[in-house]
What we know:
This protein is an alpha+beta fold. Helices cover 35% and strands 26% of the residues. The termini are far apart.
Amino acid sequence: MTVAARPEELLALAVDVAGEAGRLALENQDGIDVLDTKSSPTDVVTEMDRRCEETIRERLLRERPGDSVLGEESGSDSGTNSVRWIVDPIDGTVNYLYGREDWAVSVAAEVAGDVVAGAVVVPRHGDVYTAARGAGAACNGQPLRAARPVRLDRALVATGFGYSAARRAQQAEVLRAVLPQVRDIRRGGAAAVDLCSVARGRADAYYERGLKYWDWAAAALVAREAGVRVEGLHHAPPDSELLLAAPHDLFEELHDLLASLGADTTG
């Protein structure tokens, strides 16, 4: 049975396998088409989503037999070790489908329920974001620190939208109220890239409803290790109800605004 490795060792493997999958996806982006849909006709899957996840899963279990893997496309399996890998083979599939640049491969290592290492590879930008619990975050080997918090009315805020028409309509109503209160809004289309952008100071804050664990497991660790507060509303952990990321002072302002708007209500 494989014993649990140190976070730095798990991170090295995460970087390696995410990089391998990222190269595979990048080489095959041109001409890709929709293979299937999931929750709605707009929630698409490509052949490369599945091929990349298979590549990551096979490599992880070859290197660490006994670990388990939770992947977006193939679900969860059970292992005998305390390490579970959280995998999003292509975060931002619609961007990938349209030949756009903002998509990423995310691989996180969770030990006994806590994410201790994470890698987010953004192939079209040539960026590799990394973090290990308690050891800080980096982009391409350079340490990351989030930008100093600004007032809400000076904040560049990233967000995203769900796939169902009802949820999008409700999110649009929230956004209509948020927009006059902030500097501007950005919608990149890849949660992991948005979270890493906050860690890098390329956005001041990010919020979104409807995310899955694999969307944020690796990137949330990157953000936290860069000094970003990542939570849900009312001090809850981030989950599908809402994820909010911002430096501490800005977090409170944006949190209170989103809470007042019912940003975590079902749509």
